[in-house]
Amino acid sequence: NRYIAEHNGRPKPFVWTKPAAAILDAVNGNAAPSV
Predict the structure, then answer these.
(1) Which residue from 12, 20, 25, 26 lies 20 to 30 Å from 33 (Cα-Cα)?
(2) Per-domain boundaries in the chain
(3) Which domain of life is it from (predicted)?
């Protein structure tokens, strides 16, 4: 697939934008208010 080849040609690391606790709370249905 051309898209995958292009995307993998210039990779960049994934950066979490929220603390893990906030993500887990959202997944578990306990969403914290956004800042």
Answers:
(1) 12
(2) 1-29
(3) Bacteria
Single-letter residue type at 21? A
**Tokens representing 31?**
């969403």
Task: Write the burial class of residue 22 (CB in 10 Å: 0-12 exposed, 13-18 middle, 19+ buried).
Answer: middle
What are the tens digits of pLDDT across the range 5-30?
888 888 888 888 899 888 888 888 87
- CA proximity to 20, closest of 8, 9, 12, 28: 28
d(CA 19, CA 16) in angstroms, rounded, equals: 7
What is the per-residue pLDDT for 31?
A: 62
